[in-house]
Amino acid sequence: MKLIHPSFKITSYPKNILENIENAARTCYKSEDKICEGSAAKIVEMLLNKKHLAMIEFGGTITIKLKIDRSMSHELVRHRLASFAQESQRYIKYNTDIEFIYPKEVSDSSNISFYDFCKTLEIIEKTYHSMLKNGISPQNARGILPNCTATEINIQANIREWLHILELRCSKRVYPPLRRIMLQVLESFYHKTPVIFDELYYIYTDDIIKNL
Q: What is each CA distance from 27 to 16, 49, 113, in whole angstroms?
């Protein structure tokens, strides 16, 4: 058994996001002649302020790979306008240590709770390995694995959908472990393209700082 922290990495991030949006938007206004140095940032800021978000979709798509637990992935796949590719427990055999996401809320609550949590995972892991050795297929053995089992999931979405995802998943009403990792995603996106993500970033700046 291995306890790990949630993590993510950006695997694909479009170049020239602002310029891509500007080129599409100026087609609508027939103002291509106004393209100059710095004009992309200004028109994107104007589009965001006016909530003309259809143009933001032309910025391109961002793909990230998250290592989170199953309870978090179950929530993220509800976003209909994104694409997902997730590690399959149906086909994968966990022949060695099974990775589980470190439960900050449990470990912070009491030593007894954390001890019981770990002992339960050890029993589950042992039972899972025993089932495999006795000929049970991974797709049937997976039934005993808990929501805190680590999983890798790729998420791809356009810029507009990422704004929507982050607006929802950075809220204080969200499942705390998922919120923490999504605040980190927001911070990374902000540093890459502040014009797009600065409004959300400024809303959650204090939370992002506390999260680090």
A: 17, 19, 60
Compute the distance between CA of residue 212 and CA of residue 168 in angstroms, rounded to an integer. 20
Pairing assessment for the beta strands 150-158 and 83-86 based on DSSP bridges: antiparallel
3-state secondary structure of 193: coil
- Tens digit of each residue's pLDDT, the chain (212 residues): 999 999 999 999 999 999 999 999 999 989 999 999 999 999 999 999 999 999 999 999 999 999 999 999 999 999 999 999 999 999 999 999 999 999 998 988 888 899 999 999 999 999 999 999 999 999 999 999 999 999 999 999 999 999 999 999 999 999 999 999 999 999 999 999 999 999 999 999 999 888 75
Residue 161 · residue 82 · CB < 8 Å: yes
DSSP H stretches of helix in 10-90: 17-29, 39-49, 70-76
Helix (H) or strand (E) run with residue 1 in it:
none
**Residues composing the chain:** 212
DSSP 32: G
Q: What is the pTM of this model?
A: 0.94
Beta-strand relationship, 99-101 and 83-86: unpaired
Residue of 46, 82, 52, 47 lying closest to 64 (CA atoms) = 82
